[in-house]
Write a structure and sequence with these properties.
491 residues; alpha/beta; Rossmann fold; pyruvate-formate lyase- activating enzyme; five-stranded mixed barrel; 22 strands; 21% strand; globular; disordered N terminus; binds S-adenosyl-L-homocysteine; binds iron/sulfur cluster; binds FE3-S4 cluster; transferase; S-adenosyl-L-methionine; tRNA-2-methylthio-N(6)-dimethylallyladenosine synthase; tRNA processing; metal-binding
């Protein structure tokens, strides 16, 4: 789920670590006020900002890319590591000068930091007028108008039901080809290092029909790829009974439970020319049924983000990941058996978790040697207040050791990324064109089913087209290709 990279063609693993944010773009539909949002953290947060923009649009706001001209500034924040929070605090202090010259401007902190720190944020950051957690965005217009009248406000109510299913997101930073769809919110897993269950609340799944409708509408507007988002998509579970059939006024429904494999199939059937991706899969929950569903549909991309966190069973137990090294490796074998060697697999890794020994760290490296991930997001452990690990274990690995272990993990990943990419050289792949390459106006970029970015010369086609290419060269982060066929029958 952690995806801090936006529209970048060529990245190294180190660059992927760099904290990045997305901002709103200019939109003029004649509304009287301007909203600027800066979004940090994971795709889930970026997707939430699209819901926030939609709610604010209904209430008289167009988006802007310039915070100087905004009436309202929102920072949609992340708490996953200490550094993510520090970045936001620094950013708030940068807005101080602007607020001094423009005191009528409203500054809001949304998202995970808002949820974690609640009214403490108003005390600690004087510039902030509103603090709103991830389940309370419907209250934003109300809180903003109160702030305009001089009273600061906080709403960090966590809901067991809110999925914003009825809100059509305003697509921000859109390339018009790929889009995110949130399919669930919250997380019930309680991994001991992780703050998400506290900032996002209980897990709940969104009505599958609203998901399919959103995918269909996107396809009709020209989008060709959707990514289904959740902290743990494999635990998607929805039943009309539980979700109060009467309230939803749905009489045509059969009384059954929809799992993630069912949902994936429903979205895949929207159109064979709509690619479907998903993130994140949890190793304890990913089922063979999901893998067989992926195999059955060409338009479900053959790529799985399956974060391992550590290669050592004792550390995994302390992390409360509820699987061990053997279980994880069995899941990898199953993926290879059902989907073959070309299926892309990526991971998240944490170096230097509490009490991790040198030998245990080496097991993360040997895990990497066995799996050969195409890509990974790699971090050193950052203790988060209130988590199980913070309460139970000592954060006892010195920073320099954490950093050295992390650099070993990064070096290994770079080797493997290159090795995996080299296997693609000489093969034919179908890519979906997402737009012009950042490196040159003469080149397009698009991704393979396995989620690898390919750079090709511009031909007689446009964004949103599928192109069959021959891979001619690669780096650890990017493939380069020649055009073979435009709009092939297989995608
Ligand atoms: N739901 C996803 C992960 C979401 S958080 C999953 O279970 O895989 C994204 C990643 O941030 C995690 O996979 C983990 O690698 C990293 N992370 C989370 N908490 C962290 C912490 N306290 N210190 C360092 N990295 C952390
Ligand atoms: Fe955090 Fe674990 Fe939930 Fe992922 S599955 S969001 S790491 S608690
Ligand atoms: Fe995402 Fe960061 Fe929250 S990773 S769920 S924005 S803590």
């Amino acid at each position: 789920m952690e995806n801090l990279i936006k529209d970048i063609d060529i990245i190294t693993a180190e660059e992927a670590q760099a904290c990045d944010f997305k901002t709103t773009e200019d939109e003029s539909t004649g509304k009287s006020k301007k909203l600027y949002i800066e979004s940090y953290g994971c795709q889930m947060n970026f997707s939430d900002s699209e819901i926030v923009a939609s709610i604010m649009k209904e209430n008289g706001f167009d988006t802007t890319s310039s915070f100087e001209e905004a009436d309202v500034i929102f920072l949609n924040t992340c708490s996953i590591r200490d550094k993510a929070e520090q970045t936001v605090r620094k950013r708030l202090s940068q807005f101080n000068a602007l607020k001094n010259t423009k005191p009528e401007m409203t500054v809001g902190v949304l998202g995970c930091m808002a949820e974690r720190l609640k009214d403490k944020l108003l005390e600690e950051e004087k510039i902030v007028d509103v603090v709103v957690g991830p389940d309370a965005y419907r209250d934003l217009p109300n809180l903003v108008s109160q702030a305009e009248e001089g009273s600061k406000g906080v709403n960090t109510f966590l809901s067991r039901e809110e999925t914003y299913a009825d809100i059509a997101p305003v697509r921000l930073n859109s390339n018009g080809v790929t889009a995110f769809i949130s399919i669930m919110r919250g997380c019930d897993n309680m991994c001991s290092f992780c703050v998400v269950p506290f900032t996002r609340g209980r897990e709940r799944s969104r009505d599958p029909y609203s998901i399919v409708n959103e995918a269909r509408e996107l396809f009709q507007k020209g989008y060709r790829e959707v990514t289904l988002l959740g902290q743990n998509v494999d635990s998607y579970k929805w039943s009309p009974e539980e979700n109060n059939k009467a309230r939803l006024n749905r009489k045509d429904e059969v009384s059954e439970v929809y799992n993630f494999a069912n949902l994936l199939e429903m979205v895949a059937k929207v159109d064979p020319k709509l690619r479907v991706r998903f993130s994140t899969s949890h190793p304890k929950d990913i089922t063979d049924e999901v893998l067989y569903t992926m195999k059955k549909y060409d338009n479900i991309c053959k790529y799985i983000h399956l974060p391992v966190q550590s290669g050592n069973s004792r550390v995994l137990k302390l992390m409360n990941r509820t699987y061990d090294r053997e279980w994880y490796l069995e899941r990898i074998s199953k993926i290879r058996e059902i989907l073959g060697d070309s299926c892309g697999i990526s991971s998240d890794m944490i170096a230097g978790f509490c009490t991790e020994t040198e030998e245990e760290h080496k097991e993360t490296l040997t895990m990497m040697d066995i799996v050969k991930y195409d890509f990974s997001y790699m971090f050193f452990y950052s203790e988060r207040p209130g988590t199980l690990a913070a309460k139970k274990y000592e954060d006892d690995i010195p920073l320099d050791i954490k950093k050295r272990r992390l650099s070993e993990i990064i070096a290994k990943q770079n080797e493997h990324s290159l090795e995996r990419n080299k296997l693609d050289v000489g093969t034919e792949q179908v890519i979906l064109i997402e737009g012009t390459s950042k490196r040159s106006d003469e080149q397009f970029k698009g991704r393979t089913s396995a989620n690898k970015m390919v750079i090709i010369p511009k031909g007689d086609f446009d964004k949103g087209d599928y192109v069959k290419v021959k891979i001619t060269d690669c780096t650890a982060a990017t493939l380069f290709g020649d055009i073979l066929e435009i709009n092939p029958s297989q995608i």
